[in-house]
Amino acid sequence: MFFLRMIFRSFSRQLKRRLLIAVTVCLSATVSVAMLGVVFDVGDKLNAELSTYGSNITVQPKSDAVISDLYSTDDAAGAAGTSDSSGASATTSDPTSFLKESDAKNIKTIFWAFNITNFAPQLNIHANVEGPDANGHNQTTIPIVGTWFNKTLKLDTGESTVVGVQGMRSWWTVQGAWPKDDSTQAMIGVNLADKLGVRIGDSLVLDKATVSGKNNVQKVTIVGTYDSGDDAANSLYMASSVAQSLADLPDSVDKIEVKALTTPENDLARKAAKNPAALTSEEWETWYCTAYASSIAYQIEEVIPGAVAKQVRQVAALQGDVMNKTRAVMILMTALSLIAAAIAVANLMAASIGERGSELALLKAIGATDGAVSRLMLAETAVISLVGAIIGAGLGSGVAQIVGQVVFGSGITMRPMVFVLVFVLLAITILIASVSSIRSILRLRPAEVLHGR
Predict the structure, then answer these.
(1) Are 144 and 218 in contact (CB under 8 A)?
(2) Quick check: pTM over 0.70?
(3) What are the transmembrane regions (predicted)?
(4) Nearest-CA neighbor of 120 among 172, 167, 184?
């Protein structure tokens, strides 16, 4: 009871300094909770944000993957061919190896199915367009991408999911409408539209000589144009079922683009990407049960026969680099706020001890030990700091939500461990800041202080 009475008396006599300590701790707690809250939730937020800029895993037939590795060809060039500086297709070769389109839905059955946010199969072929183009040519060979636009899949689990390029090409500038799946509607790139002299609402007659010797003709209606900002603007996008019918390749695709939320790579992920068989049983379990791009790709290979899944290295590297730098900045801000709090609290406690020297000396003179006086000061500071920390934790949660809404367009999930970690860090900070003050108390000589020396 004696120490409690002393604490309340101290509050009434030196309210200003105690308020300054509380405010200092409150500000530090606010910054720490906000920054660490974002740090612990930034992985999924950044992955979701960066994944809007395209797929991060591509699935190909094994033979195509071997050729890509041997000749270091770009996946994006693929069967649709590359483009020269004029925007024309540099090759008109069609793919010779295929995956089954009906197997694509198996991607949503893997262990990390909920991390697969979107995917779309592609059949990249070429066909001739009948009629003169803008340059007066009577027949022009164009690249065609047969794909899913906004397709609803019924899974074996009874659930349904909507997938397709419409949700994977957020950076495209689209005029008109997206084509409907399993229809004769099509979308044309702005470069190809200029070359052919077509507009929204026009029709194109496509002529395709198939491998079996047939000559198939398909009429499509242009319902939209898109500007991708790259060579993809030289292509015509249409429903995969129509492209398969035109090329006489039922249930065939040569590529599947997959967009997944992944964990940044580390040494284990890089080791597994080179050779999963080289992992120990413990490493294998950790890798397989972590959402690395390489482990998700491996699981996709398990459910799609004859497929090789590869992560898009540029996207994976960008995600990891951005997340690591973002986390480093926020952790640095947290550390700086704690350091600032330690310095401020140490100075305020030193000033408080200087003003209260006579009071503390009197306590020691009437029998209080150095330990008792030190505990009194620590208890007083702890109570003040606890009040500031609680208020700061509430303010920090609010700041974290503001950061989430402004930067990511969604709220931040505040994990309990964030508050536990902040309170532990603040306790250590206050304890360190109190060391010099405790040493000052131990050096107090009651006789000298009470006699004004």
Answers:
(1) no
(2) no
(3) 328-350, 383-404, 416-435
(4) 167
